[in-house]
Amino acid sequence: MTAFSSTRVFVACLLPDEAKAQFSERFDARFNAHGRTLTADELVADSAGAEALVVTATDRLDAATIARLPASVRLLATYSVGHEHIDTPAARERGLTVLYTPDVLSDACADTALLLMLGAARRVVESQALVRSGAWTGWTALQLLGRDVHGARLGILGMGRIGRAVAKRARGFDMVVHYHNRSRLSPEHEAGALYHPTLDTLLVESDFLCVACPSSPETRHLIDAARIARLPPGAIIVNIARGEVIDDQALIPALESGRIFAAGLDVFEGEPNIAPAYRTLPNVFSLPHIGSSTLETRVAMARLLAHGITAAFAGEPVPNRLA
Ligand code: NAP
């Protein structure tokens, strides 16, 4: 039986009922009544009286919005592991506790990364179109030749929680895993993956490049034309992290020319207003940011935040505390 507290929680993001229950069973919880992402003004107004505010990656909590939050708000919880949408120093300065959802979504995202790799390498977009159009005239040895995933070299940019879960799955495909982080992992976390102190040497070894690092000023457009040119001809790029890490103006021509065989993209710069070429290029296998979108993961994310809120207000340690 879940203990109920009178803590007033406003959940500003839209959640499935099973995830909402994680808050309503524990707290005096209110939910977004608009059925869409709130504007900053609505977020501020609807937070009135709340002690904890639950947002997600599409809610921008910049310093100005944080400054306008009602005085009752003492805790900000983001229903995401990415946190570039929150001005964390401003939140800290304001005395807010900030929570996020690491670990619980890594496996779902890594599953999606494998889906992106397989879908891009095996030409799923063209295959689906052929079957659905009725134009398929039967098997030939010529049709829709893809690239092998098994045995290929996988370069992971950002070997964190999600990157390591991708590596674990890739080993099951006999892929040779390389990675680049700013700092090298322990042997236990490396699990045999080959470390590259620089991104440039990683790229040369990457038949597949999986982007799994956070969005930050440092990583914005990190995958630009010069870095794409370092990948082996016919390489495949997948992005499970954030669209901003890839420069679309560099990737799109490389896809058009075939220099890059295909891309698997779950995330896009400026989403949902994505570069139009991504809607039409046959070698782009795209998903609408569903990396962590399973019911089990959605519930686990809500449960983690709910436990964190309970612990924080009880003055206990909170493992998923960002600030
Ligand atoms: P994490 O555990 O913090 O891992 C991030 C990794 O990136 C770390 O290993 C870090 O290592 C590396 N990194 C950070 N900055 C870097 C830089 N400038 N150059 C090279 N490597 C860098 O985070 P996570 O839980 O794996 O999540 C990763 C990202 O995935 C999130 O930030 C989020 O944007 C995205 N995400 C997407 C979805 C989706 O639905 N598609 C869902 C969840 C998360 P060093 O610090 O040593 O460099």
Automatic annotation (TrEMBL):
InterPro entries: D-isomer_2-hydroxyacid_DH (IPR050223), D-isomer_2_OHA_DH_cat_dom (IPR006139), D-isomer_DH_CS (IPR029753), D-isomer_DH_CS1 (IPR029752), D-isomer_DH_NAD-bd (IPR006140), NAD(P)-bd_dom_sf (IPR036291)
Keyword Cytoplasm: no
Record Pfam families: 2-Hacid_dh, 2-Hacid_dh_C
Entry keyword set: NAD, Oxidoreductase
Keyword Protein biosynthesis assigned: no
GO molecular function terms noted in the UniProt entry: glyoxylate reductase (NADPH) activity; hydroxypyruvate reductase [NAD(P)H] activity; NAD binding
Residue ranges of domain D-isomer specific 2-hydroxyacid dehydrogenase NAD-binding in the record: 115-291
GO cellular component terms, A-Z: cytosol
All copies of domain D-isomer specific 2-hydroxyacid dehydrogenase catalytic, residue ranges: 16-322
Family, per entry: Belongs to the D-isomer specific 2-hydroxyacid dehydrogenase family.
Protein name: D-glycerate dehydrogenase
Native organism: Aliidongia dinghuensis
